[in-house]
Predict the structure.
Amino acid sequence: MHMENQHQTTMFQPVGGMGMIGKAFGKQVEGLVRYGAKVTKIDQSGGAVTVTYTDIASGSERTTKADYCVCTIPLGILSQIDLDASAGLRAAIAAVPYSNSVKVGLEMKTRFWEEENAIYGGISFTDQPISMISYPSGGLHSDGPGVILGAYMYGPSSYRFAGMTPEQRIAGALEQGAVFHPGRYKEQFTTGAAVAWSRVPFTLGCCAQWNEATRKEHYQTLVAVDDRIVLAGEHASYIGCWMEGALLSSLDAITRLHKRALEA
Ligand SMILES: Cc1cc2nc3c(=O)[nH]c(=O)nc-3n(C[C@H](O)[C@H](O)[C@H](O)COP(=O)(O)OP(=O)(O)OC[C@H]3O[C@@H](n4cnc5c(N)ncnc54)[C@H](O)[C@@H]3O)c2cc1C
């Protein structure tokens, strides 16, 4: 296809949402993944790696042992875990702050933007804190409710919204988004949901925020094998805040670990 700036290039979306990508990977390793296991300690003494975790369903503490560990826990959490690693790696983990993001989903009784405004998917931008609203690109012309992405924020606005209750975030998104559809937006609204990534306990932020100075001082230490542990994830890549970076870093981590194991 000829690509021009006036022509939207083809985009694919996973059926059922982005979460299906992780689930599809999960299927390939069925039986090998222990879900609901919150890691609290990583020890690498005695020629092995011992990971202590809380089994969330039962609340009981358990351990598991292996020769090596590829650790994909985001840095903001890893910095608070009891981690047996070199001072250099621990300093690298602590040196990288995370950005934040907030999204608000708003369910509307009907897809009035299609019927009344001929809007089919896409984004409307605003200079208000919500930054944008985005219309569903699937289920076009279908009856019944539709969910609008009512806010997608980074930077200071995202922290302001993260400090609100979910109900306040939804009310703010409704108020600000109503500029695009006066009279219809609030009247059609039924229910909403809001996520502030800085408050999600399993990410504590959106993505790692490297800069030139931290890359120079800490990056090579962060991605190096530390005795029997190697880190992987978007934070251990140069394609930060992107799934591609997370995936490539895992391949890189395995290659480094394999090399280290052969040397041992
Ligand atoms: C709002 C938002 C929009 C984004 N949009 C895009 C996009 O359009 N395109 C794109 O490519 N990327 C996007 N990204 C980035 C993408 O989601 C990440 O780069 C990717 O998920 C990082 O993968 P990861 O494996 O490094 O970390 P994660 O996916 O965060 O995985 C880390 C895992 O560690 C687990 N964990 C945390 N603590 C513990 C613990 N103590 N014990 C056990 N497990 C633990 C977590 O539960 C989680 O499963 C977006 C991110 C956000 C937040």
